[in-house]
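Tokens help. Consider this.
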Amino acid sequence: MAVYRNDQVDFSFGAEIGAGGYLAPVKATADASSEVAQVTDTVSLPGARTIGVDATTNAVVGEYVQIGTTGTDGVEIRRIKSFVAGVSLTFTAPIGYYHRSGVVVQGVETTTGTAGTMTGLALDTNTSDHMRFTPGAWESIEVPDPTMEIEPRYFLGVGAKRNYYSAYKGQQSLSGTLSNFELLNGYPLRFPIGTVSTAGTDKGSGGGSVVDGIIYPGQYEFDVDSATNYAVDDYIAVGKTLATCEVRKITAVSSNNIWVDYPFLFEHAADETTDEVIAPYTHTITEAVELPGISWQINNKDSSETATNDWIRRYYGGKIGQATLTAEEGGTLRMSWESAPFLNMDHNQYDHSGITAPINKFDATSLAVTVERPSTEPYYFSQGSITMFGVEFARVANFTININNNLEPRYFISNDANRTPSAIFEGRREYSMTATVVLPDSLTSLASTKTLFKELLAEGDYAAGFTGFDIDLVFTRGTDDTLTITVPSDGTSAAGGNEQGAFIRSANTSVSTENPASTEVDILFRDLSIVVKDSEPVYP
């Protein structure tokens, strides 16, 4: 008999442009009996739960509608939570894509009642799985399945014999952890930090043009003034010279209209430069006040690998609250997403013998994702170098960088029966670093050489003032294949607010049985930046 095995699990993730707007570019067979409406808002932006329509005839709570027409607009399917007659539709989950005014909204066919298996469910034309990415080589996940608060209540005079009289439903929380995975590229690095922009290398003989009209976040088809020399499977950079540059793979070209394999994360103005690019690609990760949203998807396959038995769970509206980067001698660079709260989830388990189907959080649009697994080597500890206050340390035994965003899920008044978080807010950002450093060769007490002990006593207060010092951490896997972490973010420590670098809080050189002697260093710093150069063109 087939069983669910952990070694059969597929895990993948994708970015969200708007909070909770998971990217699932799926289409289904249109329901001929359903009212076809038009979106009348100027635009519908990622993260919106409600869209305006010119008619809601035949709209039914619990049924599904497809927003967009396959092959001509970005397409996604959402389930109706409520509607205002002739005015708007509100969905159980936010939309993930940008939809222009006049986009068709239509009902879709289901085969089991109003919320069962969806007829003709498949990826939309010209797109690929947008939740296809894996963060690295992982071994275990603490999944963010809901934690239900069931609250007992004790009433006097009810003869309960000291037992609680009745239990009531409380709030639901969803938080997961993905621990100690090996980094194979820089995909997961930005989510606890902020945004990523990507620049490629000019192909020279490739296409080149400018954007014709605005590209909105969540859009993956757009016009250029000339599509000459652009072809399917080419890579196009949009906003080539800007800090918001993005690289995407072309999936279709029709006249001067281009489709790409992943939605844009930034807005791109009309007349921004586009160009065909090739490897190497440079990805710059920059801090942002609001963290990027993230969706996780877990597909438990059974031992027979029967597709109809797949158990699919999708978690959306997530943010990475705490993260660590760590490595030690003889090992590889590893990362942990220590805390990842989510707004809600959905799944593909439809029926329940004691409940009128569908059961809570069911979504008929759940599709198994073809996970994209990198073929690159990990970043080996032996390939790294650490420079602090201008001195490269050759005898670092281990290090850990800690990031804490102090996230706080909030529960606001609403008519949502799920009682899940309404929003997740960022608190103060905190960085720290610890390392074990073997002492360098001995030197005369009169030498002016910089050491950790001297830096501890200096407290980062030099002739230029209370500035702190710079840190550069570089992993080099090969030519044009590097990961660089810079502290402070601009690489130059200076006195004054928003300018300081790193400070050593402790550097204890204890006396123990270990030789040669080593120091346990604890470092505080206020910001960082990350640059990854590799052969991966599209970062989620």
User: Anything to note?
Assistant: Residues 8 and 301 are 5 Å apart (CA to CA). The longest strand covers residues 166-183.
